[in-house]
Structures are given as C-alpha cells and as structure tokens.
Amino acid sequence: MNNETTTLISLKEAMKRVDHKLQALEAQFKELDFTMDNLTQKFEYHSKTLANQAAQDELWTAVLSLKFTSMELNILYSYVIEVLICLHTRVLEKLPDLVRGLPTLASILRRKVKNKHIRDVWESVLEEYGLQEGDITALCTFFVAHGNKAEHYIDKVRRMYIRDVNFMITNMVKNQALQDGLLKAVQVVEKGKAVRVSEEQKSPLEELIPSIKS
C-alpha cells in the first residue's frame, strides 16, 4: 500500500469522524432549541400568570378600599347583582337541558372551563350584552367583597338617592378594570329597562291598531 492510498484512507476516516461530530452537534443544537422553546413558553406562562395575579391583587385592593357610603354601596351592589342574575338567566335560557346542573352563576363559571358548549354559550351571552371576561371578574370581585352586607335597591329607590350613578363611579373608582365593569353593569341594566319600557308602550298601541288579517 503506497503513501497516496494510506493518505486517502486516513482522509476518509477523518471525514467520517468529522461527519459524526457534526451529526452529534446537530442533535445537541436541536435539543438546545427544544429546551429553549420550553423555557421560553414557561417564562411567558409565568410572566402572564404574575401579570394576572398582580392585576387581580390591584382589583381586590381597589374593591376593598372603596370610599362609598353604605347607601352608595347598596346602589352599586344593586346594579351588580342584577347583571349577574341577568347573565345566569340568559345562559339557562340557551341551555334549558342544563338548568338543574347550573343552579348558580358560579357553577357556570366553573363548568365552562372544561365544557366547550357551556363556554361557547357563555361567550355568546357576554357578547350579547357587550361584556368581557374582565368585566365579570370585576363584578364578581365586588360581589364577593360586599355582597354579605349590601342591600338591593329597586330602580325607583336608586333614583331617589343618586341621579347620575355614572358620574359617581367615574369620580370615585380609580381602578380602570373596576370602573369599566361597574359602568358596563349600569349600562346593561339601564338598557334592559329601556327595552322593557319600549315593549310596554308598544303593547297598548298594537291593541289600538285593527288587525288586517283576513
């Protein structure tokens, strides 16, 4: 075997070793990429969790530090509870087969996490009333914090005490999420009342219009 043949064999063996090393490096890089992706996902998840926790802490702090009188608190509670009852009722109207299994709004919020059908209906109801999950979080937080000592005032009583509840909320509630939730609660209740008044006014008029059916 001459020198050229020996050199060629040695070169081929060296190239094989280099190729094996390159393959090993490629596998290591793929593993590093996979590990980095996992770490990035975990970091994003934890960052989001911490941000949500911080926002929730701020919301609770805002709810517990409200400077309303008991009468003003009762008025806000009245709007909040009416909206929560309205949402619960509307979901049950769309899910008549699950009425017994969804006795409270809390049961809907709990079961929608794993039940897509309930979740879809819930989201459609929120959209119907112009609400978002953040609004519900704010309203439920308010309810949990003050529901045990607040009283419900009917609309006529509310108007006797406060003429502009929107101004009261905007002026007194500084936390944006809580302010938005309370303002939307008032909007939902007032809009629903306007619709009822319109229907009540429409009914007598329809009675005065003669039927043209043959």
Tell me the strand percentage band.
under 5%
Q: Write the H/E string, N to C.
A: HHHHHHHH
Compute the average pLDDT.
84
What is the general shape?
Answer: elongated
Q: Give me the number of helical elements.
A: 8
Instruction: From the alpha carbons, calculate the radius of gyration and give it in angstroms.
Output: 31 Å
Coiled coil: 8-42
Keywords: Coiled coil
Pfam family, one: DUF4547
Organism: Camelus ferus (Wild bactrian camel)
Question: What would you say about this model in short?
Answer:
The protein has 214 residues and is mostly helical. The protein has eight helices and no strands. 79% of the residues lie in helices and 0% in strands.
What tags apply to this protein structure?
214 residues; mainly alpha; disordered C terminus; Single-pass membrane and coiled-coil domain-containing protein 1 isoform X1; coiled coil
What does this structure look like?
InterPro entries: DUF4547. Residues 8-42 form a coiled coil. Keywords: Coiled coil. This is Single-pass membrane and coiled-coil domain-containing protein 1 isoform X1. It comes from Camelus ferus. The protein is mainly alpha-helical and 214 residues long. Helix content is 79%, strand content 0%. The chain has helices at 3-64, 70-94, 105-111, 116-128, 133-146, 155-161, 165-172, 176-208. The longest helix has 62 residues, at 3-64. 17% of the residues are buried. Mean pLDDT is 84; it is low at 201-214.
